[in-house]
Every structure is written in structure tokens, then in C-alpha cells.
Amino acid sequence: MRAALMTTVVVIVALAVWASLRDAAPLRDVSALEQRPPAESALPDVATAPRAEPAPPETEDAAAPSYTTASEGDRPLREHVVAPGETLASIAELHYGDASRANEIYEANRDQIRDPAHLHAGQTLVLP
């Protein structure tokens, strides 16, 4: 009888310790996470990541959209280099202030746009 009672007490104590450790896990000290090398994790630790300073205006970001002026006959045309994540609507909004003019850009660039929903970064589009 004493052995059964002792076993029960040991099991209850073990469960209580286990429950307290399980509940305490979310409250653990995260300062140790700051010391691990960034290569261990595929995701960056945004809580400790240093803030990036904005690029000075004189430097050009490679992913930023750009455009130049060309000419076709009497009418000047502009070109736009597609940045990652841009759509025809976002380009129309950027240059014309009206996203609904995306079809005009598509019609002017039908020779190089297979699917208007999928642009490729680095493509140069003519803006009518």
C-alpha cells in the first residue's frame, strides 16, 4: 500500500513539474536568441534587426522603377523598367495617376507581354 501511495505522489509531483515547465516555456528569456548567428534561422529576427537607413537620394536602388524618355515620330514616349512585384495597374497609377489606364500600357507593349498579370522584373515597357 505504501509503495502505491509513493508512486502516486511521485507521479503527481512529476506532472506538476512538467506542467509548470510547459506553461513557462512561452515566458522564457529571449535575450539568448539575440546571440545566435543569423545563418541558423531562415527567418530574420525582426525584434533585434538593426534599422536600415534610407538610401541617399543620389544613389539609385536597383529594384526601384525607372523610366527614360524616347521619341516615336512627333510624340515623346517614356520607358519604364519593371521592378519586382509591380503590375500594369501599379505602373499606370505611378505614371498616370490612374490604375485603370493599365490596358493602354499593355496595348503599347503587346509584343513583349505574354500575360498582363505577370510582368518580369527588368522588363522595359514603353509608356504611351
- End-to-end Cα distance: 93 Å
Shape: rod-shaped
Mean pLDDT: 74
Number of helical elements: 3
Q: List unreliable stretches of 5+ residues.
A: none
**CATH fold name of the domain at 66-127:** Membrane-bound Lytic Murein Transglycosylase D, Chain A
Largest sheet: 3 strands, antiparallel
Strand order of the biggest β-sheet: 1-2-3
CATH class category label of the domain at 66-127: Alpha Beta
What class would the helix/strand composition place it in?
alpha+beta
Specify the helix fraction band: 25-40%
CATH superfamily of the domain at 66-127: LysM domain
Radius of gyration: 30 Å
Strand-residue proportion = 5-15%
Notes on the structure:
A three-stranded antiparallel β-sheet has the order 1-2-3. The chain is rod-shaped. It is an alpha+beta fold. The chain has helices at 2-24, 88-96, 102-108, and strands at 66-72, 75-81, 124-127. The protein contains three helices and three strands. It has a domain at 66-127: LysM domain (Membrane-bound Lytic Murein Transglycosylase D, Chain A, Roll). Strand 1 and strand 2 (75-81) form a beta hairpin. Helices cover 30% and strands 14% of the residues.
Question: Secondary-structure map with pairings?
Answer:
Elements: H1 2-24, E1 66-72, E2 75-81, H2 88-96, H3 102-108, E3 124-127
Antiparallel strand pairs: 1-2, 2-3
Helix pairs in contact: 2-3
Give a summary of the structure in a few sentences:
By secondary structure, the chain is of the alpha+beta class. 30% of the residues lie in helices and 14% in strands.
